[in-house]
Amino acid sequence: MAWVYLFVAGLLEIVWAFSMKKSEGFTILLPSAVTIIAMIASFALLSLAMRSLPLGTAYTVWTGIGAVGAFIVGVLVLGEMLTPMRVVAACLIVGGILLMKLSGSPS
């Protein structure tokens, strides 16, 4: 169950990063509220996942999902640049996440 919590926490990290961008520096109410709610929920689920997952693994996977997800949302939704170097960087992050998952974590 810890991995489910961690995955959802990572997805919520993408939500809060996107809504923070749309809040224009917390000057627009709805995206600002979504940012805060998604942050709290993401941290709460990360906390639950960390009950049984190692700190390094949980934090790496959480930030990796958020980073790669935000990159994908930026490209697909916000029209940000998709360059070969950015794709390689995202692939390296995914590779790091997979290595952490396969590193023998007990859960």
UniProtKB/TrEMBL annotation:
Main subcellular location of this protein, as a coarse class: membrane
GO terms classed as biological process: xenobiotic detoxification by transmembrane export across the plasma membrane
Membrane topology: Multi-pass membrane protein
GO MF annotation, one: transmembrane transporter activity
Signal sequence residues: none
One of the record's GO cellular component terms: plasma membrane
InterPro entries cross-referenced by the UniProt entry: EmrE-like (IPR037185), Small_drug/metabolite_transptr (IPR000390), Small_multidrug_res (IPR045324)
Sorted UniProt keywords: Cell membrane, Membrane, Transmembrane, Transmembrane helix, Transport
Transmembrane regions listed in the UniProt entry: 27-46, 58-79, 85-102
SUPFAM superfamilies: Multidrug resistance efflux transporter EmrE (SSF103481)
A Pfam family recorded for this sequence: Multi_Drug_Res
Subcellular localization(s) per the UniProt record: Cell membrane
Tagged with keyword Glycosyltransferase: no
Record family assignment: Belongs to the drug/metabolite transporter (DMT) superfamily. Small multidrug resistance (SMR) (TC 2.A.7.1) family. Gdx/SugE subfamily.
Protein name per its UniProtKB record: Guanidinium exporter
